[in-house]
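It would be a great kindness if you could assist me with a short task in structural biology. The matter concerns a single protein, recorded as an amino acid sequence and a row of backbone structure tokens. The record follows directly beneath this note:
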Amino acid sequence: MILQSGVIPYRIKNGKVEVLLITSSSGKHWVIPKGWITPWLTPAASAEKEAWEEAGIKGKVSKLAIGSYEVQKWGFPCQVGVFPMTVETELANYPEAKRRKRQWMSLTRAIQHLREADLKLLLEHLDHSLTAKLK
């Protein structure tokens, strides 16, 4: 199995959790920033690098994954470790700016737009843990 890592980029706006999704490289569906784990980086640091390259965002990435999900990539199964990321900066210029769109949305809307059932569950888990902190 091939290992990848990714982030769930989020912010708190007006007391509500919002998630930033990006379009896939084909532009056909919404995904989270993710990619191959760079050999000299930790999975969390590699996910942080992918967030900058694919979504043009910087912020604080948790050192602990909140879970993982499986996806097929070029006919091979990939296990994607997922790390929450508090977004602090959105950049206009980044490596994949011309290839991808990005959009902030509520957690409910983000869950509706994602295809992978296990990734949807990770967003629900993040929602419960962040909502508990906001109370």
User: Anything to note?
Assistant: The two ends are 40 Å apart (CA to CA). Residues 117-134 form the longest helix (18 residues). The CA atoms of residues 14 and 134 lie 11 Å apart. Helices lie at 43-55, 107-113, 117-134.
